[in-house]
Amino acid sequence: RSDIKLPESPDQRISIKRFDQDSFVTLEVFPAQEPEASHALATVSDRPNAVFALPLKKLDNLIGLEELPLDVNELRFRYLVDIDRVQLRSIVIEFDNHVIISRDDPIHSPYTFRTPSSKPQKVNEEQLKDLLVILGFSSIESFVSDAAVDLSRYHLDAPLMRIALSYFDRDTPQTLLISKAVRNADKTVHYATIAGTKRVVSISENLFS
Prior knowledge:
The protein is mainly beta and 209 residues long. 6% of the residues lie in helices and 33% in strands. The protein contains one helix and 14 strands, in the order ββββββββαββββββ. It has one helix at 125-137; strands at 12-16, 25-29, 39-44, 52-55, 88-94, 98-102, 112-114, 121-122, 142-145, 161-167, 174-178, 182-184, 187-194, 200-204. Strands 5, 6, 7, 8, 9, 10, 11, 12, 13 and 14 form a ten-stranded antiparallel beta sheet that branches. Strands 1-2-3-4 form a four-stranded antiparallel beta sheet, with no helix packed on it. A hairpin with a 6-residue loop joins strand 10 and strand 11 (174-178). The relative contact order is 0.11.
C-alpha cells in the first residue's frame, strides 16, 4: 500500500457490522483520480495493507459504484403501505361512500363487505385483490416531507380518501390519508400520509383512476 498515493479523504464511507462482530468494518471509497477513470480506489478497515480498485460502472456481473443506492430516499420502502395479508382483518374505505371489508377469522372466514345501510355481502375477490395490489405495490413517486406538521399544506387536513387497515395481531389500525389531486410543478399528484406520522409522499394521479 505504501507505493500507492490515495487522495486525502474519501467521498464515500460505508460501514457494516455483523451480529457476531464487536465493531464496524468500514469501506472507504476515494474520488476517481481522472475524469474518465473506470475505477476508484478503496480501502477496508480490517485489511489495512490492501488497496482495492472498484469499478465505477457495471462490469459484467459486478455492480458499479455509481449504481449503489446511497441516497436515503433510494433506501426507503417505496410503497404506500406494507400489508400483512395473512393478519389483515378489515379495510374501511371512506370515499364517495363508507365501505367496510372485513372477516372474522384469519384462516377460515372469507371477506365480506357492507356499507352503513346494507347487510354484509360476499366480496368480489378479484376487486379485493386489485385493491390490495394498488395499496401494497404502487410505488411512491417522491418523498415530500419527513416533518410535516401542518397537513393543510398538502390538502390532507380534509383528505379525499381515508383507508383504515386493521389486523388481528395489532391493536391500532393503520390509516392511509390521500389528498385530492393537486397541481405540482408540471404534473398533477395526490399527497398521502399515514395518520399519526409526519411523513408525506406524493403518488400518481392515475393511481385510483
